[in-house]
Amino acid sequence: MAAEWTKLWSVRSTWWTLLAAVLTMAATSAQLAIYARNANTDDDPANNPGVVGVGEIVAGSLELTQYVVLALGLFAITSEFTTGTIRTTLRCTPSRGRVLAAKAVVVGAVTFGLGLLLGTVGAVTARPVLGEWGRAPLGGTVADVVAAAAYLALIGVLALGLAAALRGAVLALTVLFALLMIVPLSLQEPDITVLTRIADAFPGVAGNHFLAGDTEPYPAAAGLLVLAAWTAAALALGRWALARRDA
């Protein structure tokens, strides 16, 4: 884990990713806050969301920001496949399961910490923009920020597992984009109950139910468990692929 921590922080791409994530979160939160404020002050009574909690803005902002954070999980292993340093890693630690587990712990810790920072940035950015149409109760806001961090940590480790199995950053990102957005939206679009229920089992939709604190179609805690199950399955797939193929 110490070696993986050092590798992660010793490359400039990590720092650029952190900066891009913060800027994306700030810009997206401000934009969503502006939309909410304008919706309350325009002349269309049908489009009036009322007072909005900053936690809702933070959760909405993650739909875009998560794709920046995913890069940390992807590059933690695809960069080693690209440069060939994975061979040195495996010579130092022949147990491939230990290598992947160490990467998962480091990626999970870093993305959780980054999630706390991003949630705070989103809340601090959105609150003044919302003005009288916003609310930020301390307890609720802290809970929303922690939930955002947990979501990003699981998504980051999910990305790591898929990247370990697929080896290519572009291919892994394409699969993640399909799992998190394209396939669920395609299933929800016809508004057919069976297809919508299938979409609810996908990681992105489950994560959204968790972040929103929904009670239907399942409790928020169940959404977290569904996302965690996808993450565990991705790690298992990555472990299986690492064991079967040469570096």
TrEMBL record:
Keyword Transmembrane helix set for record: yes
Transmembrane region(s): 64-83, 104-125, 145-163, 170-187, 220-242
Highest taxon of source: Bacteria
Keyword terms of this UniProt record: Membrane, Transmembrane, Transmembrane helix
Protein name, entry field: ABC-2 type transport system permease protein
